[in-house]
Amino acid sequence: MTEQRFLHGQWSSRMAFILAASGSAIGLGNIWKFPYLAGDNGGGAFVIVYLLCVVAIGIPLMIAETMIGRRGRQSPINTMLTLAEEAKASRHWHYAGWLGVAAGFLILSYYSVIAGWSMAYILKVGGGFLANADAQTVQAAFLDLKAAPDIQAIWHTVFMAGTLLIVSRGVHRGLERATRIMMPGLLAMLVLLDIYAMTTGGFGQGLAFLFEPDFGKLSGESVLVAMGQAFFSLGLGMGSIMVYGSYLPDHVSIARASIIVATADTAVALMAGIAIFPIVFAHHLEPGMGPGLIFETLPIAFGQMPGGSWFGLVFFLLVFFAAITSAIALIEPAVAYLSENLGLNRTAASWWSGAVCWLLGLGTVYSFSGGENGSSRNFFEWVDFLTADVMLPIGGILVAVFASWVIKREVSEAELAMGAAYAWWRALARYVAPGAVALVFLHAIGVL
Ligand code: PFF
Prior knowledge:
Elements: H1 14-25, H2 28-40, H3 44-72, H4 76-86, H5 94-126, H6 135-146, H7 149-168, H8 170-198, H9 203-211, H10 220-234, H11 240-245, H12 254-282, H13 297-303, H14 308-341, H15 346-365, H16 379-406, H17 409-416, H18 421-444
Helix pairs in contact: 1-8, 1-12, 1-14, 2-10, 2-12, 3-4, 3-9, 3-10, 3-12, 3-16, 3-18, 4-5, 5-7, 5-14, 5-15, 5-16, 7-8, 7-14, 7-15, 8-12, 8-14, 9-12, 10-18, 12-13, 13-14, 14-15, 16-18
The chain binds 4-fluoro-L-phenylalanine (PFF).
4-fluoro-L-phenylalanine binds at residues 24-25, 27-30, 104, 107, 232-233, 235, 238, 240, 326, 329-330.
Family: Belongs to the sodium:neurotransmitter symporter (SNF) (TC 2.A.22) family.
Keywords: Membrane, Symport, Transmembrane, Transmembrane helix, Transport
Transmembrane segments: 12-32, 44-64, 98-123, 153-171, 183-203, 223-247, 259-281, 310-331, 351-370, 390-407, 428-446
């Protein structure tokens, strides 16, 4: 292929793509959100539904999105434009690209704040805060952090700057190098924490909670939550995997790479649960603690355990690694677009988009200090709702429809080169994925 086909560079190997895409998929969604959602929705039965969603919807969509990216070889917006023209379809399809870029931007604005919390905890826990800290002290620390917008703003700034530093260095020296170092590190830390969890005495109970299905606890609502979570966790419907696909060399099998990435993402979510729940149960704490599970419940347990400070430190480092390798994927579509259309160099494109995103994040920073305000959504909850419940599902449906209905069959068949499995992919992408995602969406906005 000519150099010109890769405007922004390309991955140096299949492994580089797999690590970067896994870095995008594996994030706060796996370590912060999945365990508390499983906790809130009854454990085992939720996990089974989640696995089904990954296989029937997540993987076909990931294949679809990566394929679109590789075929278009540009930012999601220009990719959609080029491919729509190639298929003689409406130019309006490029709005799907816009939707993705905007969603990534909005998600990163709050993602950076939560990731900032993990950095605050690295410092706190590393400084010995957990040594013999009792439950009240730990709880008070989390409340204090949430009530201190200035401290959160500082960490939000540091995290965003770190993200931009990586992104500004480009595909090769930035994204690829960061994920090559951090992803193995993340896995090693997670394995260490899993082994540690085995020694806590709550291991059996933790495993039973995660893997013994009690379908009585599963509501229609939880099925939809599972589907939404699969979507968010795999990082679909918003251009990140599309832009990563656009840096993918031609000879790599998209289907195989997607299956590996989805499997890694799911394995890490389960391993995070396997690390967290035994520790929670060993200390007779509640698993369904909502978003506070890892910042409040878990540190209480760490505070009472031998070596708890060390393992607590490893845990928050893990959260940080997971978050930053996702953050770079969230902003990459915008950076690619700005450098294509405004002619900005990569550094300028990164810092400009980062600055706007940072500003938006301040809205989230101030969302937590007001305490509970009844049923009305705060800024953070609005952004979360708008992205996870509205933009991602719409983006996902558009991607599935575009890949399987608009792009010509010869094109997708050649691009995917997956033999007999192609028919399966096509059926799932044409009917199952858009149908199921439409259900989630209609439910989320209150129509169903
Ligand atoms: N998949 C990430 C997580 O589970 O935390 C979040 C995310 C990253 C969503 C990248 C979307 C994306 F494009």
